Amino acid sequence: MQRRILAISAVVLLLGAAAIWLWWPESEGALAFCWRAGALMAAAWLAFDGVQRLPGWILLAVPVVLIAAARWPRLLVTLIPLLILWAILRKILGGR
Description:
Blueprint: H1 2-23, H2 28-52, H3 56-71, H4 75-92
Helix pairs in contact: 1-2
C-alpha cells in the first residue's frame, strides 16, 4: 500500500509541476517544490523494495552521517573509512 501512495504522490506532484509551469510560470517556489518533491517521491517509489531489505542499523546511521556531513564536512574523511572497517570486521567476526 505504501508503494502505491508514493507512486500516486509522485504523479500528482509532477502533474502539478507541469500545470504550474504552463499556467503560473511566475510562481517559482511552488514550481521548484513540485518538481523536487515529485522526483524524490518517484525515486523513493523505485527504491521501495530495496529499502525494505536494509538492516535497521543502516537506517539509523544514514541521518547521523548526513548531519555530520552538513555540520563537519572534514569529519567524513575519518568517518567513512571507519564505517567501512566496522562493516568488514562485523562480517568477518560473524555478527548478525
